Amino acid sequence: MLYDKEIVELFLMTIKKEGSIHLPAQGSSMYPFIKNGEICSFNECDPIHLKKGDIVLFYASSNRLIAHRYYKELKDGQRRQYLFKGDTNICFDEAIYREQMVGKLVYVQKRKYKLLVSGFLARTWAGLILAIPFLTGILRKCLNIQQRLKGSRSQ
Predict the structure, then answer these.
(1) What are phi and psi of 30, to 5 degrees?
(2) What is the pLDDT of residues 22-72, one digit of tens each?
């Protein structure tokens, strides 16, 4: 999603005031954990408490809001940077700084239930994605096949 800095500031103020913000997912980079159109709830994000596998909403230099999985912290001189990647993306995102973080995912509103990131299913999925890197390629292939099938049905 494309956003300007004023909208991001509004999101940050909303999280601070209300405790969380709810946004619809756009895209397929976190498929199947987060599907296009599902509502994602984010609360405040303090990088000190980030754990590998957490999903963070951040503002990229491309003026896009992205929610991807946290992998590791890097050093840029005296400043810390953070590295993220979508579950179906082959490459990591550009490293970001703390001030680019907007919120940490709390839950995904599925069609019939709320998927808590602290729950067994979410923690198991995160563990698999982190432990089995080639799973990303399999997911990407499945998505490509699914998109081709949708395209052929609409013609």
Answers:
(1) -110, 15
(2) 999 999 999 999 999 999 999 999 999 999 999 999 999 888 999 999 999
Q: Rounded to an integer, what distance in angstroms lies between the CA atom of residue 68 and that of residue 51?
A: 13
Strand 101-109, strand 96-97: pairing: unpaired
CA distance 24 to 28: 12
- Helix runs in the chain, H state only: 5-18, 120-131, 135-153
Where does the pLDDT of residue 154 fall: very low under 50, low under 70, confident under 90, or very high at 90 and above? low
First to last CA, the chain: 27
Phi, psi of 42 (to 5 degrees): -120, 140
In angstroms, rounded to a whole number, what is the distance separating the alpha carbons of residues 154 and 45? 41
Distance from C-alpha of 1 to C-alpha of 63, rounded to nearest angstrom:
8
User: Is the full-model pTM beyond 0.70?
Assistant: yes
47 φ/ψ angles, rounded to the nearest 5 degrees? -55, -25
Angle, CA of 97, 102 and 104, to the nearest 5°: 105
CA atoms within 13 A on the CB side of 41: 13
pLDDT band at 150 (very low <50, low <70, confident <90, very high): confident
Q: Which amino acid is at 139?
A: L
